[in-house]
Amino acid sequence: MFDLESNVAAWRQSLASRGSVPPAALDELEDHLRASFERLSAAPGLQNALTPDECFALAARRIGDTRVLAAEFERVDPSAAARRRWIWMLTGYVGIHLASQALLTLSVIVAATTWYADPLVSSAVFSLTLLGGVAVMIWAAGTGVVRRALDNVTHTASVGAWSAVRVMALGLVALLASTLLTPLGTIVSARSMSVSRLWSDPPTFAATVPFGLQLSARALAFGAPFVILTVLLLRERTRRSAA
Amino acid sequence: MPEPVSKELVAASSKPLVLAILARGESYGYAILQEVRERSGGRLDWTEGMLYPVLHRLEAQKLIQARWATSENGRKRKYYRLSRQGSRALESERADWLAVDATLKALWG
Fold first, then answer.
1. CATH number of B7-108: 1.10.287.130, 3.40.50.10540, 1.10.10.10, 1.10.600.10?
2. Alpha-carbon gap: B96 to the closest alpha carbon of chain A (Å)
3. What are the pLDDT digits (tens) for A16-67?
4. Is the CB of residue B20 less than 8 Å from the CB of residue B33?
5. Does any CB of chain B come closer than 8 Å to the CB of residue A26?
6. Cβ(A221)–Cβ(A181) under 8 Å?
7. A171 pLDDT band (50/70/90 cuts)?
8. pLDDT at A181
9. Are the beta carbons of B26 and B107 closer than 8 angstroms?
10. Which residue among B48, B53, B75 sits closest to A31, beta carbon to beta carbon?
């Protein structure tokens, strides 16, 4: 069964995700797509020849390749597109970091409640909470839940989803790096954590991970996102000036 | 079917075409395209979406003005009309294109 609304939404999303088409233009193009679809579905000669599905595909094809279209829009106002990306990148970056800090704190508090029962159980609880939180964040980024929620609040209608997705990915890399690169440090040893005072009895094997390794892993986890972000932005600028 | 006009010429003529159509009265994207298709006998075949960056550029140059209104089927629709500056721009476009046309005609006899 052909569902016009979901097809229109998917088409709109694919155009919006390029990041250069302003929301008002998306509305305008959507109106065009619907008008074109209605006309094709009502055309006397085509009514029996084409399924609604095919009418929609034809209407979308006539509007043109979304990539080419988005590039053309970027040429209309290059600075606006760049501005939107910057804002999204910064918002996303800050958002991810706040979320990951909150998650880390939550994991420590949850784990601390079980510490006296059994340090091993406590470590397991800690990693499970942390990994569960990471899974939720990956899910939220993948399904666009957060972005849609933000859209509803700010009415920006998926502006710059292009960068939103990348920023989510970037933040997750940062989070995964801090979880995985300091694994021995954070999961097993309470000593390496800044909030370790919650854990009154540091495990005896805390010292098995050399302090230097812990430190460099932390520095890497903290610095990598900045490096990646800078490289991405520089590449974007080069690409733009080349075009 | 007649052979379509080359992409380059379609792009070059988009500005005078849009201005000329809007000079006849307020209109919106889909209707503008229909009119171009009909009046050119199908020879001017635009990739439909490409009209919108053109409209937005003309709007930014203040040659046309836009307003949002509700269409007959209840959807939000953006209508465009020619501004005074646009009328002047259309006049100069017209002079340019007539000059090209006259030159070609003189050469081709």
1. 1.10.10.10
2. 24
3. 877 778 888 888 999 999 999 988 888 777 767 888 888 899 999 999 888 8
4. no
5. no
6. yes
7. low
8. 56
9. no
10. B75
Mutate to test the interface with A, among B47, B70, B71 (most CBs of A within 10 A): B47
Q: Which residues of A touch B35 (CB under 8 A)?
A: none
CB-CB neighbours of A98 under 10 Å: 11
User: Is ipTM > 0.90 here?
Assistant: no
Q: Is a pLDDT exceeding 80 seen at residue A221?
A: no
What is the enclosing helix (H) or strand (E) of B77? strand B76-82
Contacts of B78 in chain A (CB under 8 A): 24, 27-28, 31
Smallest CA–CA distance, residue A234 to chain B, in Å, is 27
Cross-chain residue pair B78–A73, CB shorter than 8 Å: no
Confidence of residue B93 (pLDDT cuts 50, 70, 90): very high
Q: Is A148 on the interface with B (CB under 8 A)?
A: no
pLDDT tens digits, one per residue of A74-96 = 888 777 767 766 766 677 767 77
Domain boundaries, chain B: 7-108
B50 touches chain A (CB under 8 A): yes
pLDDT tens digits along A233-243: 677 666 666 65
Q: A24 contacts in B (CB within 8 Å)? A: 78
Contact between A36 and B56 using a beta-carbon 8 Å cutoff: no
Scored b (16 or more CB within 10 A) or e, A59-91 reads bbebbbebeebbebbbebbeeebbebbeebbeb
